[in-house]
Amino acid sequence: MIQLEFRFEDRAALAEERFEHPHPHVQRKMEALWLKSLDLPHSLICQICCISGNTLREYLRDYQQGGIARLKEVRCYRPTCALVPVQTSVEETFQKHPPRSVKEAAARIAALSGVHRGLTQVRHWMHRLGLRYRKVGMIPAKANPQAQVQFRQEQLEPRLHQAQSGQRRVFFVDAAHFVLGPVLGYVWSAARVMIRAPAGRQRFNVLGRWTR
Fold first, then answer.
1. Do residues 66 and 33 touch, judged by C-beta distance below 8 A?
2. Please, which contacts does 85-90 make with residues 24 or more away whose CB atoms are closer than 8 Å?
């Protein structure tokens, strides 16, 4: 068993830091050593602090080797993702051009950063960035009557007059019906992407065309 002697100054520091220290991991260390200074058995200290016997012995050795200063050291290992250094640039790229699939996102990340990750890892990483697989929305876009009138007056009617005078040929074909409506897909984005497009109720019948 590790034998420790607690000075009066250390007891006061332990009593204070177990509540006042900003890091909760250090608070737990101080609490365990404070209870040890009261000569409580190790099993009870482990039960109160919710730690194992090996962890308590590690705390005791730290205090024995470096005192209160050693207990304040935070040596928790937290692995970091290799994509963290390029996270900002990847986010900006995805905001401008949202990827259509996780496979596309993985390929673009590898091209930007040189870091290759599997599809599951890329999917989890995009979820942490706040990206979701959302369906593209549609904002109805109204026709521009002024532009249509301008096209008829400046382009269509002059060509028809040229065809009447024999300067141009016009070929008539069977009617072709065009129903304007976008094909909406899904992309990975932080917010739903909206595009301007006809509502799908506009139908145009093309009865002929002209050639130059």
1. no
2. 85/113, 86/112, 86/113, 86/115, 87/129
- Report which DSSP code applies to 141: -
Q: Give CA–CA dist 75/148, Å, rounded.
A: 71
User: Residue 100 — φ and ψ, nearest 5°?
Assistant: -85, -20
Q: What is the pLDDT of residues 75-116, one digit of tens each?
A: 766 666 677 777 788 888 888 888 999 999 899 888 888 888
Cα–Cα nearest to 4, from 51, 71, 49, 52: 71
List of residues 6+ apart from 209 with CB closer than 8 A: 170, 171, 173
Q: Are 59 and 35 in contact (CB under 8 A)?
A: no
Q: Is the pLDDT of residue 141 over 90?
A: no
CA 65/CA 63 separation, integer angstroms? 5
Helices 53-71 + 42-49 axis angle, to 10: 80
Amino acid letter, residue 176: A
Coil vs helix vs strand at 148: helix
Range list of β-strands (E), the chain = 132-135, 137-140, 170-179, 186-189, 194-197, 203-210
**Gyration radius of the chain's alpha carbons:** 36
Q: Which amino acid is at 185?
A: G
